[in-house]
Amino acid sequence: MSAYRNRLLSLMKAHRRLTSAGSSRRQPIFDVETRKDFERRVINSDRPVVVDFHASWCCPCKALAPRLENIVSEQGGKVRLARVDIDEHGELAMDYNVGSVPSLVVINKGKVVNRMVGLQTSEYIRDWLKKVMSHDEN
User: Fold this and answer.
1) What's the rounded Cα separation, in Å, for the pair 12 and 28?
2) pTM to 2 decimals?
3) What is any one of the record's Gene Ontology cellular component terms (predicted)?
4) 59 is catalytic
5) C-alpha distances in Å from residue 121, one per residue of 66, 97, 117, 126
6) Ordered structural domains, the chain, with CATH
7) Which residues lie closer than 8 Å to 101 by C-beta, 6 or more apart?
8) 79-116, pLDDT tens digit by residue?
9) For the chain, what percentages of helix, strand and coil (3-state, to nearest 5) are there?
10) Is 61 an active-site residue?
11) Catalytic residue among 32, 49, 61, 71
12) End-to-end CA distance of the chain
């Protein structure tokens, strides 16, 4: 069973790489591949980034993912979504004090401006993000 799981995860990663191949830095939703990628696309971003710290084995994370993608897509490019798998990037999770998944951290101009832990409704996330975005405009 473990070999099957590893092969499945490998295929999923390959699919993500292929579907994002040739994508620009401006892509609003992306998977973080390396620490350097995180620094380039999140820390140095010209707009706020919602960082979704998640795990492939986490059921609430799986339920939250499509909600986040829809909400970020609704923002018309004003915010980006970076997905960080804590099993692949444990050091990033530790850097941002992630103790539970799913955890959302909003980073703007290299600084953490807000965070949320746990599965939330789409309405709650929209309101939460709206507050973050209005704070950025002030």
Assistant:
1) 20
2) 0.80
3) mitochondrion
4) no
5) 11, 23, 12, 9
6) 29-132 (3.40.30.10)
7) 53, 54, 55, 58, 60, 61, 86
8) 999 999 999 999 999 999 999 999 999 999 999 999 99
9) 50, 20, 30
10) yes
11) 61
12) 52
